Amino acid sequence: MVNIKMIDTQGYGIHKMFQSQKDRFLPMPDYDLSSSNVVVLNLPGTIIDENYSIILMENQNLTLTDAVLLDQVQKGHPISSEAVAMLRKRKLIEGRLPHIYVSKNIAQATGQKVEYSKHKGLEFKKCKALLLEALEDHQSLSRMEIDGLWWNLLPDSLSDKQKKAKVGNMLTKMREEGIIINKTLGNASIWSLVKTKK
User: Fold this and answer.
1) pLDDT band at 16 (very low <50, low <70, confident <90, very high)
2) Residue-wise over 32-65: b if at least 16 C-beta within 10 A, else e?
3) Which of 51, 74, 83, 100 could be stapled to 79 by a disulfide with Cβ–Cβ 3.0 to 4.6 Å?
4) What whole-number distance in Å separates Cα of residue 26 and Cα of residue 54?
């Protein structure tokens, strides 16, 4: 059986199976280990999520590890924080655990622009709500204080310079909406709520 290549004596069968699925742009194998004495293998022969297959086709440089981890993300399965950090560093995903999603670059290539924009919109809404609540409590906040308030809500994939620019853009948007107002006191930029006439 070894000579006619029906069995593998080196233990590469599982790796070959995963690589074959990747090469065919198909979802990765799943193992069900819920039973103590039985292992069930699910080997998809058809596309489950078309977007995942397009990701593999559009990004031939993806490693097998990338493909397996993205497969888990596509299926909504949890992955480790280390895996999330690695995928984020490669700009394949965005978001925070447990709500991670396909990154903008991949989304544009796979028709997931709407999904990406929904996540992006939620990010602004969270920051906006948090700032309004803080201004209700404290009447005014400096730009440095707002940076600290929003910093951890912004994607880890952004550099410090990009985060500062994003904070500035969101503050400008809220000012243009007539919600907050800015005054400069010395070298400090102070933000407060726009007072409504009673």
Assistant:
1) confident
2) eeeeeeeeeeeeeeeeeeebbbbbbeebeebeee
3) 83
4) 10
The Cα–Cα gap between 101 and 118 comes to 11
Is pTM beyond 0.85? Reply is no
Neighbours of 150 (CB within 10 A): 21
Beta strands in 86-187 (DSSP E): 93-96, 99-102, 140-142, 180-185
Give the C-alpha separation, 184 to 192, whole Å.
11
Q: Please report where in the chains the tokens 């990747």 appear, as a residue.
A: 22
Q: Which two tokens stand for residue 126?
A: 């969270």
Q: Which residues pair with 189 in a beta bridge?
A: 184
Q: What share of the chain is helix, strand, coil (3-state, %, to 5)?
A: 50, 15, 35
Report the run of H or E that residue 193 belongs to, with start and end. Answer: strand 188-193
Tokens of 143: 């730009």
Q: In this predicted model, what pLDDT tens digit does every residue of 89-138 receive, in sequence order?
A: 877 787 777 777 766 665 555 556 666 665 565 678 888 999 999 999 99
